[in-house]
Amino acid sequence: MTKNITDFSTLTFDCYGTLIDWESGIWDSYQMLIAANGRNDITRQIALEAHAELESAQQAATPDMIYPQLLAHVHKQFAARFFMKSDDAFDRGFGAAIPHWPAFPDTADALRVLKQHFKLVILSNVNRGGIAASARWLGVEFDAIYTAEDIGSYKPNPRNFKFMLARLQADFGVEPGDILHTAQSLYHDHVPATPFELAKAWIDRQGLQDSENWGATAKVESRPEVDFVFPTLAAMAKAVMAKKLH
């Protein structure tokens, strides 16, 4: 039976890509390397696609490495892939840039609306320090935050969803049927959430319904079924308010 968007008690979010504009943050953070090497041929799309491949491989290879260190490794690999010179300072700086990644313009307003009707939870691949730094952009207090640093693996590993579901049940009495998992990434979130039979809201910020611009997110071979699709978080909040008014 298809549920209405207001039938859930809890929204679980991916943060980076859904609430925080990580693609702009990543692209901006590569600028020092690109400029220092005088490379005018590396476009945003080229950079983000390479980053997606390198980051996914590094996360699988070193699941217990915290995210800023992992980003430093990816930066070094990125430089090598494009025959650019980097150094430890450039690599570490890239890993330390998370606090400077901006929120999407609609994030804070939309979260304040959603907070009135749901518990809000984050399941993120970023470390605890990164989330704490980004929280200043989000405008609300989350009921729970679970990170790759807490879990010891990165999404799309199913361990991350198992961890979140166990904690939500133990700490809040929230069952899987109470949850609407809300995320931009098909690869990191909607594909691994599917076996757990979670309802899913796709925030399609990349416009993948109408294009193949995967950006910094690894591609999936087949798109999973989702229950709701919105182009922005603001559109989702508007849909919630419309249902609440009727």
Description:
This protein has 246 residues and is an alpha/beta fold. The chain is 45% helix and 11% strand. It is built from 11 helices and 6 strands. The protein has helices spanning 22-29, 31-36, 44-61, 67-81, 88-95, 107-115, 128-134, 148-151, 158-172, 186-193, 233-245, and strands spanning 10-13, 119-124, 144-147, 179-183, 199-203, 228-230. A 6-stranded parallel β-sheet has the order 3-2-1-4-5-6, with helices on both faces. Helix 4 (67-81) crosses helix 5 (88-95). The longest helix is centred in the first third of the chain and has 18 residues, at 44-61. The protein is globular and about 55 Å long.
Quick structural summary:
The protein is an alpha/beta fold and 246 residues long. It has helices spanning 22-29, 31-36, 44-61, 67-81, 88-95, 107-115, 128-134, 148-151, 158-172, 186-193, 233-245, and strands at 10-13, 119-124, 144-147, 179-183, 199-203, 228-230.
Question: What's the layout of helices and strands?
Answer:
Elements: E1 10-13, H1 22-29, H2 31-36, H3 44-61, H4 67-81, H5 88-95, H6 107-115, E2 119-124, H7 128-134, E3 144-147, H8 148-151, H9 158-172, E4 179-183, H10 186-193, E5 199-203, E6 228-230, H11 233-245
Parallel strand pairs: 1-2, 1-4, 2-3, 4-5, 5-6
Termini, distance in Å?
A: 20 Å
Q: What is the CATH level 1 assignment of the largest domain?
A: Alpha Beta
Q: How many H/I helical runs?
A: 11
Sequence of strands across the biggest β-sheet: 3-2-1-4-5-6
The shape, in one word, is globular
Largest sheet: 6 strands, parallel
In the CATH hierarchy, what is the superfamily of the largest domain?
HAD superfamily/HAD-like
Q: Percent of residues in beta strands?
A: 5-15%
**Total count of domains:** 2
Structural class by helix and strand composition: alpha/beta
Element string (H = helix, E = strand): EHHHHHHEHEHHEHEEH
Outline the low-pLDDT stretches.
none
CATH architecture of the largest domain: 3-Layer(aba) Sandwich
Q: Helicity range of the residues?
A: 40-55%
CATH fold naming of the largest domain: Rossmann fold
Radius of gyration: 18 Å
Write down the overall mean pLDDT.
94
